[in-house]
Amino acid sequence: MNPSTSAALHEQTIAQLSAGLAAGQFSSEELTCAFLQRIGRDNPQLNAFITVTAESALAQARAADERRRQGQAGLLTGIPIAYKDIFCTQGVRTSCGSRMLDRFIAPYNATVVERLNAAGAVMLGKTNMDEFAMGSSNETSFYGSVHNPWDLNAVPGGSSGGSAAAVAARLTPGATGTDTGGSIRQPAALCGITGIKPTYGRVSRWGMIAYASSLDQGGPMARTAEDCALLLAAMAGFDPRDSTCVDRPVPDYAAGLNQPLAGLKIGLPKEYFGEGLDSAVAAAVETAIAEYRKLGAETIEISLPNSQLAIPAYYVVAPAECSSNLARFDGVRYGHRCENPQNLLDLYIRSRAEGFGAEVQRRILVGTFALSAGYYDAYYLKAQQIRRLISDDFRRAFDQVDVIAGPTSPTVAFNLGEKVDDPITMYLSDIYTIAVNLAGLPGLSLPAGFVGQRPVGLQLIGNYFAEERLLNVAHRYQQVTDWHNRIPTAFA
Amino acid sequence: MSLGVVEVAKIAHLARLAIRAEDAPAYARNLSAILELVEQMNAVDTSGVAPMAHPLDMAQRLRPDEVAESNQRERFQAIAPRVEAGLYLVPKVIE
Fold first, then answer.
1. Which of A7, A67, A481, B75 fits a 20 to 30 Å CA distance from A466?
2. What is the spatial distance between Cα A193 and Cα A70, in angstroms, rounded to a whole number?
3. Helix A467-480 to helix A279-294 angle, to the nearest 10 degrees?
């Protein structure tokens, strides 16, 4: 049975919607209207969108329908998606979750937006996020917290919390996210969806507002690995405007999805199953791994001995880069400016203090300190050396195994307000994701069960440019499980 | 390393952030806790380890030194807080 003939539009995956559009079962305009209606009805309680672009969405949808009539449609033509509000969208507010950019209308499109536009995707709006992508709960947003669709008292994770919540609540079939220390994978896990952070350099960072430039990477978030494959194929690729973007062909990710897993070697890092991991999350992850053994994979215990150093090194490297990147917000050329500045220094310091929230200011201060005269060797240089050790751990592991598996996050979604006053506790929710960014590797999170009503994520880590393999390994699991099809009751 | 309010004020100045006096103790506390976390790095001897600045250890790609962008001053100044006659306005710098 083809589900697209019977299921409501919002229940379908991008792959199913794409088939339905191709078969003429519905138009992109109808599809876009259906999602805009759901956003209108459900966004007030979720706060997943900062901006909804209904009018331009309908115009894009009609253009996509016209393109289809002319026989020019691709797989994503007419598919509605949402963009994390960190991607510049020409003529549309791009706030980055900050008061600093509350009135910033981007004068150009990010490369990712250009590429998805070229594929014919329809933008529904811009999703909520932790301010400047700094946070793990979406509570640092100037626009308020996002609520987790599985439990409105829980956080959706962060920083791409709006994208994750919107996909989970079926307000959009897919969305973009960015991941500097876990910001795609952790919210994907906490909201029960699939998200992939590609290899550093796989997706252009041009027009993606910078947080920590040696770690930031954009990627797709959707219900299934198959949908992520379709989105990533459109997003990835060389861009001369990003000097760190890698010039390397983009594989047909969808074509490799069904490759059998017999003989696949999965490494289980003992450091990812120790102290700090919630026992119910551990049990769900073990069950998922047992499923992989049934699919023919072999599991091997491995060690990533420097894992415990990832968070300390990250909280030097990321703040250092952030203090440098966010120096551009000076109240002069764009962004928030204070009232009645007394002099130039007053203009800078008050515009920045008013424009940035507490967590952003903390990270700017930490980074400024770490880079200040006399402290560079002890902090920044040391962190870069640790980064090498962490990367070497992964290199050694990938001599032995094809992919690495473990929990995405040590707990399921926590309650709103639970960790907001304690930065250190908040930082620890990225304990299994951060090392992947430091090494520049691809990582994926997929739904692998529940603890009570709250979803558990399984993280898969691949070798450099092994996105195709990760998507394949995730897809095969989704062929034999149905966690990814579960819909939060309130949003069915 | 533990930071006090005096150090916080110094760092805030370097970062061009106006921190209110009543918020300084909280920043000092938080920053000290973050530095304590970060200093767990010191448990490992890294002498002789080459620092890793780029995840793929790639050299920065260079492009020809040619003009690639057209002038879009009006468009970019449309989002500036204050402009006049094509100039960005700031408080008087030279008396």
1. A481
2. 34
3. 90
Assign residue A263 a region (left: φ > 0; alpha: ψ between -120 and 50; beta: otherwise). Answer: left
- State the amino acid at position A303 in one-letter form: S
- Whether residue B24 lies inside any domain: the answer is yes
**Distance of residue B67 Cα from the nearest chain A Cα, in angstroms:** 13
Number of folded domains that form chain B = 1
Kindly indicate the confidence band of residue A6, based on its pLDDT and cuts at 50, 70 and 90: low
Residue in the structure block whose two tokens are 């199913």: A16
Residues of B in contact with A312 (CB under 8 A): 37-41
Question: Does the bond joining A303 to the residue before it have cis omega, within 30 degrees of 0?
Answer: no
In which element (H, E) is residue A265 found?
Answer: strand A265-269
Host domain of residue B17 = 5-43
With a cut of 50, say whether residue A2 has pLDDT above it. no
- Which residue type is seen at A170? R
Collapsed DSSP state (helix, strand, coil) of residue A373: coil
CA atoms within 13 A on the CB side of A446: 26
Nearest CA in chain B to A426: B34
**pLDDT tens per residue across span A135-174:** 999 999 999 999 999 999 999 999 999 999 999 999 999 9
Q: What is the pTM of this model?
A: 0.97
Residue A197 DSSP label: E
Fold of A3-262+462-491: Amidase signature (AS) enzymes (3.90.1300)
Contact A107 B79 (CB under 8 A): yes
The Cα–Cα gap between A351 and A454 comes to 40
Please list, in sequence order, all residues whose beta carbon lies within 8 angstroms of the beta carbon of residue A473, skipping any fewer than 6 positions away.
A261, A264, A292, A403, A460
* Residue A213 exposed, middle or buried by CB count within 10 Å (0-12, 13-18, 19+): middle
Two tokens, residue A20: 């339905």
**Ordered DSSP codes for A418-471:** SSTT-HHHHHGGGTTTHHHHHHT--EEEEEEEEETTEEEEEEEEESTT-HHHHH
What are phi and psi for residue A58, nearest 5 degrees? -65, -40
What are the residue ranges spanned by the domains of chain A? 3-262+462-491
B11 in a structural domain: yes
CA A240/CA A263 separation, integer angstroms: 39
